[in-house]
Amino acid sequence: MSLEVARICVVVGRTRHKMVAVEMQEAVRRGAQFMELRLDFLAKAVDFKRLLPFKGCPTVATVRRPSDGGRWPGTEEARKMLLRQAIVSGGFEWVDLETDIADEIRRFGTVKRIVSYHNINETPEDLEAIYEKMCQQDADVLKIAVTAQSQLDNVRVLKLLQSAKRPTVAHCMGEMGLPSRFLSLKYGAPFVYAAFNKERGVAPGLPSFDDLRNIYHVESIGPDTKVFGVVGDPVGHSFSPLLHNKAFRAKQINAIYLPFRVPRGQLPATLQAFDMVPVSGYSVTIPHKEAAAQLAQQADDTVRISGAANTLLRLPEGGFRALNTDYSAALDSLLVGLAARKDAKAPPLEQMSALILGAGGVARAVVYALHRRGVRIALASRTTDRAARLAEEVGGKCYEWVARHQADADILINCTPVGMHPNVDESPIH
């Protein structure tokens, strides 16, 4: 079944009719060509006459229950009545019907039907069976929206899309599910959803219309699009997607760069699961830098020296090559900073001492980069045992975390998560 539909369905959900009308008009002005109206958000009885005159593109009528992530406050019978009214109103080209009620509400006129399944708690074990039953229903598009507990749930949803028998929109919700929203287009989803107003909390992890167009350029995602990303926990603060996707666009490279939130201990399973895509390379951040170095099939000198990696590149024969650009970046930054100092009496780097806070992957890279330049090393970390082992490797000192202010050093480097988003004003030292 072929569908003539825009690749982004812009979701509008506000409590007041007036604000819904304003956002509908503004969305079209910004380029929206397909829209979903979340009628369950409205605080007062739905008045189609106040909304439909401002509709400037094909629109989906949706009335979502709280159990499916919506805000409908009334009875189920009243909800189904409102859906029927939307269908016969003549003002909507589409209607969204949950799979458990879709058979009760008959097709009418030319209104197309999205038959949907939502699970705001998990990705159920019987997801594939649920989808098979949905395929038997009267639908123009099937929609699956489940909640990711790990990146492996994203892969399950993508595999479902890969073998879809009907036009299907499928993704995982939440921050962990974000990659599936974009990758679904690579596997044949006719469109993806985006929030017009990201602050309204329409659905967990729902990206904004502006981000989909201006950062991820979803209009160009297809089967041949290469995939890269950053793995870490957290990753929501990272500017890497903005940087890399802009670079891909500028260089006319058919690729997308995504944030993969991967909790500690889940890196090996995640990389293996995404071999199906495959992901061509990863930037690696907290807390996976040491794990990335250990699982790589090849490694450059900086990885072997430091025992940590911040970059993984897929090898043609499978597996990954590990690199560590933290090593050179830290050293280069220090040298630039020292060269810019106006204090002519400042000693050269080789005669200075450094206090490094933290003992994880980035700390290992920084410690070894400075140690090889002759800098005297001191460490302090909440994980004192790790800091002590690292200090011993380079002949440095180790301080208890509570005694970190007693260390005397020319250079202070923060390699801890303290000060990261969203607590950017915090500091591990006064």
Summary, kept brief:
By secondary structure, the chain is of the alpha/beta class. 31% of the residues lie in helices and 21% in strands.
Describe the overall structure:
Helices cover 31% and strands 21% of the residues. It is elongated and about 80 Å long. It starts with 7 loop residues before the first strand and ends in a 16-residue tail after the last strand. The longest helix is centred in the last third of the chain and has 15 residues, at 325-339. The mean pLDDT is 94. Helix 5 packs parallel to helix 6. The protein has helices at 17-29, 48-51, 76-88, 127-134, 151-162, 178-186, 209-214, 240-250, 267-273, 289-295, 301-306, 325-339, 361-372, 384-393, and strands spanning 8-12, 35-38, 59-62, 94-98, 112-118, 141-147, 168-173, 192-195, 226-232, 255-261, 279-284, 298-299, 311-314, 320-323, 353-357, 376-381, 397-400, 411-414. The strands form 3 sheets. An 8-stranded parallel β-sheet has the order 7-6-5-4-3-2-1-8. A 6-stranded mixed β-sheet has the order 10-9-11-13-14-12, with helices on both faces. The protein is an alpha/beta fold.
